[in-house]
Amino acid sequence: MVAGSQDRRVGSRWWRGAVVVAACSALALSGCTKNSDTSGPTTSTTAAQAAKVDDIANTVPEDIKSSGKLIVGVNVPYTPNEFKDPSGKIVGFDVDLMNAIASTLGLTADYREADFAKIIPAIEGGTFNVGMSSFTDTKEREQTVDFVTYFSAGSLWARPKGSDIGPDNACGKKVAVQSTTTQEVDELPARSKTCTDAGKPAIQILKFDGQDQATNAVVLGQADAMSADSPVTLYAIKQSDGKLEQAGETFDSAPYGWPVKKGSALAASLQKALEHLIETGDYKTIASNWGVEAGMIDKPVINGATS
């Protein structure tokens, strides 16, 4: 989820019967994900091979180090970054990278599911050590937590194949988004205001609990378009069997980051671990396995928000 208040997530009931069957054949959805598809793996062998680096592991705060676990707050699905495979295991680009980070730190990642909006408060309260849910690092969020940047993403729209709807001509149209994402909180309200200020009808913002539902709404004709983070939109298009296409170009690129408690030494540990994985090439391998190498960064920073 991109600049602003991120990046995710009122929900809609699943359609039943033949409609659901049709949707599953057209799109990777929760419960009908095509994990056998060659567009992405379900696990990364690179993540499993990452070895502990003592000099970096020794920088981890003692309470975390002694526990042997890195407790990670996560909200799914947000394919391909974090979602569940058919067995219920949480997988994705973010997961493989965090597994490799944890291994470098001599820890095991312990994933705890939570509502997206509750992850940062849980980090502040000490329930989670770190958040991993495609968080955009923003100036606003940096007031309550620190971030370690690890990726760059922007917003990107998708529409039904053959449609002419896009970000610049969506007045009066239905646009699907995941609730509490930057697209729902910042982007679409601003675009809608531009419409109404010009005397045109407002954008009808359709909010869903999960990105899979937002994408499904476009496939089923319930929405005219969708807006999401660029890797998510591109993966949805690839999985749609030609039902969806890109609408316009990526815009408002900003860094993804892992949020940690304000002032925690864990931020520097995560930064050092990622620098190590960039140097070894494991970072590139993991990103390439999931087809998201376009968003790779050269150097992670602490609190690198651009807005």
From TrEMBL:
Instruction: List keywords of the entry alphabetically.
Output: Signal
* Principal location class: other
Does the keyword field hold Signal? yes
One Pfam annotation reads SBP_bac_3
Q: Which SMART domains match?
A: PBPb (SM00062)
Intracellular or extracellular location(s): Cell envelope
User: What region holds the Solute-binding protein family 3/N-terminal domain?
Assistant: 69-294
Q: Which InterPro entries match?
A: SBP_3_CS, Solute-binding_3/MltF_N
PANTHER family in the cross-refs: ARGININE-BINDING EXTRACELLULAR PROTEIN ARTP, MEMBRANE-BOUND LYTIC MUREIN TRANSGLYCOSYLASE F
In the record, the note on similarity to other proteins reads: Belongs to the bacterial solute-binding protein 3 family.
Q: What is this protein called?
A: ABC transporter substrate-binding protein
